[in-house]
Specification:
This protein is mostly helical. The chain is built from 16 helices and four strands. The protein has two domains: 251 residues, no CATH class; 149 residues, no CATH class. Helix content is 58%, strand content 3%.
Length: 418
């Protein structure tokens, strides 16, 4: 059959006219969580994978029902059932590929100019999901009325594409349908090979079961057991791979790609930050010098999550590297009181202002009350500021220590120590 005839008579071309523009529009308007890296852009583009797989599965079911209704698979066996399926599903498979790429193009607008290329592993994983839905749709369409089969694949594709991601109790389920990669990746992370393998194995099991069942047709039940065995084997293998995984399908990036530079404070950068390393080191070193005047030694090395951090971000991150990433264990106990929470907010603001971050920028994302109080602390002498910092840092690290954030309490303590 000619390609033109297949396109005119099948649903793929008509669905493409609606699906592809919608995917591109959705992606172009939902790039807020994407950072300027190809790994992040490729992974984030999978957020619409459920729509692509559901649409392609429904198209496959429609084509299968049409072929089955015409009893083409019952004609003289000049062509095998699988060859007939391939002939009619080729446009649908192209539609699936275009759907995956349309979303990628929309999300890639953020990553343009970044080093590297889109992740082929993530794209292959996404297309494996689509192909499994197409194979399953062909099987369902041959065994159900046309409209019912199409509706069934639309519902199944949508639910399976998005429902597992909403289950907090079973986070590993989202690694079977490709949604485990959607939260990937920060600049120091890459897509988890185990997560991608789980998705591919699961998809391969479904596709193999559908293709075996299609090839065997309505033969004896013991022959159909081969299809069941293939599906069960794929599902079991995927579950074994996915169960140890947490919510996010990420793993640490190759540390050999990280470059560190600096003397008193080391600044480590990733490939997306190489071209700004000189500026970042200079800003971080200046922030360290400012903080050393009030007796604060910054942590080293420091890294930055943004591919192209601003000067204010570099100064703030360098300065606040001395703060713990999480509250102490005593604060996590049920009913525990943690006075250090208030101190943490003010100390963060004080460190950021002391490092040279402008107050006008700090108040755009931090509590104005904490920024105002930190500004009052900075009016103290360096020795007094250090005494204030040391006193209140103890409350951040120990739940039993009360805070004393008032600058008036330290107007003479620092001078006495000096």
């Amino acid at each position: 059959m000619r390609l033109g005839t297949l396109l005119r008579s099948g649903p793929a071309a008509w669905v493409a006219l609606v699906l592809l523009p919608v995917l591109f529009w959705f992606g172009a308007n939902n790039t807020d969580s994407v950072i300027e890296s190809w790994e992040s852009a490729t992974a984030q583009s999978l957020i619409v994978l459920g729509f692509v797989s559901a649409g392609c599965g429904a198209c496959a079911a429609w084509e299968s029902a049409r072929v089955h209704r015409a009893e083409i698979d019952g004609w003289a066996p000049a062509r095998s059932r699988l060859r007939i399926a391939w002939l009619h599903l080729a446009p649908v498979m192209v539609l699936g590929l275009l759907g995956v790429l349309a979303s990628l193009v929309a999300y890639s607008s953020i990553a343009l100019g970044a080093p590297g290329f889109p992740s082929l592993g993530i794209l292959f994983t996404a297309y494996a999901v689509v192909v499994s839905h197409i194979a399953l749709g062909w099987l369902v369409g041959s065994r159900m009325p046309r409209v019912l089969g199409v509706a069934g694949m639309l519902i199944f594709g949508y639910l399976w594409g998005f429902w597992p991601a909403a289950l907090g109790e079973l986070p590993w389920l989202r690694h079977l349908n490709g949604q485990g990669l959607v939260e990937c990746c920060s600049i120091d992370q890459t897509a988890s090979v185990r997560s991608m393998a789980a998705t591919i194995v699961f998809s391969a099991g479904l596709a193999a079961a559908a293709l075996i069942a299609t090839a065997l047709g309505t033969r004896r039940r013991r022959h159909q057991a081969y299809a069941v065995a293939a599906g069960a084997l794929g599902i079991a293998g995927a579950v074994v791979l996915a169960m140890p995984l947490e919510f996010e399908g990420v793993q640490a990036r190759d540390p050999g790609l990280r470059k560190c530079e600096g003397e008193r404070v080391q600044v480590c950068v990733w490939p997306e930050q190489y071209d700004r390393q000189g500026d970042m080191v200079r800003w971080a070193q200046d922030a360290e010098r400012r903080l050393s005047r009030v007796g604060v030694a910054v942590a080293s090395p420091v890294e930055f999550g943004e591919p192209r951090p601003s000067e204010s971000t570099v100064r703030a991150v360098t300065a606040t590297s001395v703060l713990p990433d999480a509250p102490p264990d005593c604060a996590t106990k049920p009913g525990a009181e943690y006075p250090g929470d208030a101190a943490h907010s003010v100390i963060y603001a004080w460190l950021s202002l002391t490092s040279g971050e402008p107050e006008s920028e700090l108040v755009t994302y931090w509590q104005p009350e904490a920024v105002a109080l930190a500004g009052q602390v900075r009016k103290l002498s360096p020795a007094q500021q250090h005494a204030w910092y040391e006193r209140n840092m103890r409350s951040v690290l120990d739940c039993s220590v009360k805070t004393d954030l008032s600058p008036a309490s330290f107007r003479h303590s620092g001078d006495e120590q000096s």
